[in-house]
Amino acid sequence: MTRVRLDVWLVRTNETRPDTAALALEELDGRERERAERFVAPGDRLRYLAAHIALRRVLALHTGTAPGDLRFTRATCPRCGGPHGRPELAVGTPPVHFSLSHSHGRVLIAVAAAPVGADIQRSPGGGTVEACLPALHPAERAEVERRPASARPAEFGRLWTRKEAYLKGIGTGLAHGMSTEYLGTDARGRPPGWTVLDLDLAEDPAYAAAVAVRAEGVRPPEVRERGASFLRAAVPAV
C-alpha cells in the first residue's frame, strides 16, 4: 500500500499585530483582501488575514513558490457540479491538497498528496452542545449523551471537528449535512476509503482538532507548531 504523506501545522496567532494588514498587501490577493474588509470587528479582520497569510506561507514551503505568487481556484462541487468546491492551487503536478481552519487565535493547516480536510474548534459551552446535538448522527448523539455533563463539551468538540474535517475533505462542507455519516468513536463504522484522525493538542487543551484524508492507513502526524512570528519571518527556501 502506498502511504499518503500528511503534514499538519498549528499556528498560534493570538498575538497578531496590526502590521499584519500591511503584510497582507504583499502576500494576499485581491479577493482575500476584499473578503477581509467585510469583517466589521478589527480583531476578526486581523485573524482572517493572519490565517490566510499562514496558509500561503505553509504552501510556499511545500511548493517552492513565493507566498504572494500562489494562485487559488475552486474544485467542482461534488453535489451540484458548480465551481464552489474545496479550495485548490491553480497549478501543480503532482497536486498539493490542503485545508485551512481557524478558531480563536489558532490556525490549523493540513497538506497532503490526497484530498484532505482539517478543522479546529475551541471547546463549546454546555448550552451550545445541547443546541447542536440534534445535528449529529443518532449514534454520535448517543455517545455524547452517555458522557457525564462535565465531559460532554470535549466529546462533542472531538465529534464536531471530525465531521467538519471530513465534509471539507469531500468538498461539500456543511451542505452535505452533519447527520449523514457516522464519525464517532467506533472507527469501523466510518466512511470507507478515508482516514479520520483526532489531533493531540496537548498545549491547547481547550481546543479540539481533527484531519480527514482520502486514503487508508494514514498515520497520526506530528503537528508542527509555530507562533505569530511565523507570519513575519522570512520564508526559507525549500
From TrEMBL:
This is Phosphopantetheinyl transferase. Keywords: Transferase. It comes from Streptomyces sp. AM-7161. Gene3D superfamilies: 4'-phosphopantetheinyl transferase domain. Pfam families: ACPS. GO terms for biological process: lysine biosynthetic process via aminoadipic acid. GO terms for cellular component: cytosol. GO terms for molecular function: holo-[acyl-carrier-protein] synthase activity; magnesium ion binding.
